[in-house]
Amino acid sequence: MSPQEFVARHEVQWTRLENLLGRLIKESRNKKTPSATEDSSIVTELPADQSQPHFSEFPGLYRQACHHLALARDRHYPAGVVERLNQLVLSGHQVFYAAHAGLWTNMVRFIAADFPALVRQHVRFFWLAALLLYVPILVMGIAVYLVPEMAYTLISPGDAVEMEAMYRPTVEHIGRVRGSDSDVLMFGHYIRNNIGIGFQTFAGGIMFGLGSVFYLVFNGLYMGTIAGHLTQFGYTDTFYSFVVGHGAFELNAIVLSGMAGLKLGWALLAPGQRTRQQALLHAAGISVRIMYGVVVMLLIAAFIEAFWSSSTLVPAYIKYIVGGVFWCLVAFYFTAMGKQRAD
Amino acid sequence: MLDTRRAIEVPEGVTLDVRIAGLVVRFFAWNIDFLIRGAIYMVLAMSLPNLMGRFGLGIFLIAIFMLEWFYPVLFEVFNRGATPGKRVMGIAVVQDNGVPVGWSASVTRNLLRFADFLPVFYGFGIASMLINRDFKRLGDLAAGTIVVYRSAPDKGSELHADLPLESPLPPLYPLTLEQQRAVIAFAERASMLTPERTLELANIAAPLTQATNDTAVKRLFAIANWLVGRR
Fold it and tell me: In this model, does residue A316 exceed pLDDT 50?
């Protein structure tokens, strides 16, 4: 068959497919699923206008075009013909394999079961990240408590004074400079700041894990400095009652982002049976799902921090109790949830 | 090979050709997005805090956070792999196997944008793109995505608009697809080459044209015209 004959014979089908693709793309942009709305009409009546292709023809026409592309290539037809078919199949492939997964159902199942199971499955990286965060906190905290001048290695004297002002027992809203902000403002601030730190800690992992290690240790040293400084100042009640509540979510979320980053780094350092590229792809698939969970936890943390932790109406001992409950909840969530899914 | 075409195998058993988008076009796309984000940012900065005070400022901070991290993700997932900037430049993100980019891949490549940005202005990202044959930045490596050119499905006849017209001539012997492409690409790009270089290239194809110099160039144009289907 000559190329001209080939084109002449199938031209009609290709234009039908082109027409259909144009409409399908437009439909998907209008957020309607064509198959669902059109399915009923297939059975009851055929479209009145026969020249206008029906959505139900799409799979058939697409496969036909694939077949024609393979033929055209194998027979060394002119590049123009191959080019056109390639373009047609490329667009068809995009539409045909577009993901239509139910986002919300997946999300609920992920939070209820998959996330804790995933963390347990890679728990070694969790403990490693936890060590990298908590050891610097402890070391720096104790050091600053014993030698107060140590604080100024990381924070400037001006920052230190501001910290003291934020946690003075007589303050109106704990954790903020007096009277400067509303709860919603601080909520926005915590979201931008804390989730940003989580994302950085994760992303740094692609540099063979070094970035994650850096952010974990650095944040650990910073938190340790502040804790040590305020403890040494005697503002223990305001400070610890402030951090205990949201800390359950925030500290663990930072550890989890570090875990996700270390997982990436480890895939590059020790790819095992895979190539480094494949190992990275595989690890990223796991890490990004951990990060979904991290985002949720940091949102919860920001909410608690803005609307609960800073309140001075609630006595400190109640905050300790509630904080304790939060820590138990988080511990229970990661140790007990999603057991039936664990493999 | 310097060619940016890559073959992707699809479940239907055929291979598809895609053209990978390089550094420059992606840089332009990024710039357009940067301007759009800047504009949104300014509008929000001027309206929200003024209208709603501290409450508005809080919302503003959340909006910045979303713009910083999720602007590309939302567009890539809901707009067939293209942010507005990519769309203007005619490129889009797809997964390595050619299917549209999903949530996980898009989130991965855009969170890792932070690492690509280091140490200054996409230093690691640019280095990675120049080393990798598919122009992948670090985020693309981890997410398993590529950025490709996307032309409209109904372009058909205009596909070779810049081909110089010459009465079509069939080649002396059947050409493989790669050879056909080389001839067409030569004809299309001849206007951008110096005359000396054009002759030099045309002379390489002597077995096909059975001629040299100007005649060879003309013959190649004629064959190219025949190859794209003008008969």
Answer: yes
